[in-house]
Request: fold
Amino acid sequence: MSIHLVTLANDNLLAFLGFICVDNTLLQGQVYLRLEERSKNGEAIAYCNRIVKDDSQYHVSVRCQFETA
Reply:
């Protein structure tokens, strides 16, 4: 995901005022675990989250939706 995000931003492939919607950025809480406790997917999502958080060209808006059975 992070490679795609960087490519979109660096190559101006996103429309002016366009947005990217990212789902599952918490991956069942794995992003909060210590590095050695995360799965490979958990670490990949944590890495993508860090890229977005640390880069000032991105504006982050959070919307939470909870589903019930």
Q: What stands out?
A: The CA atoms of residues 34 and 57 lie 28 Å apart. The chain has a mean pLDDT of 80.
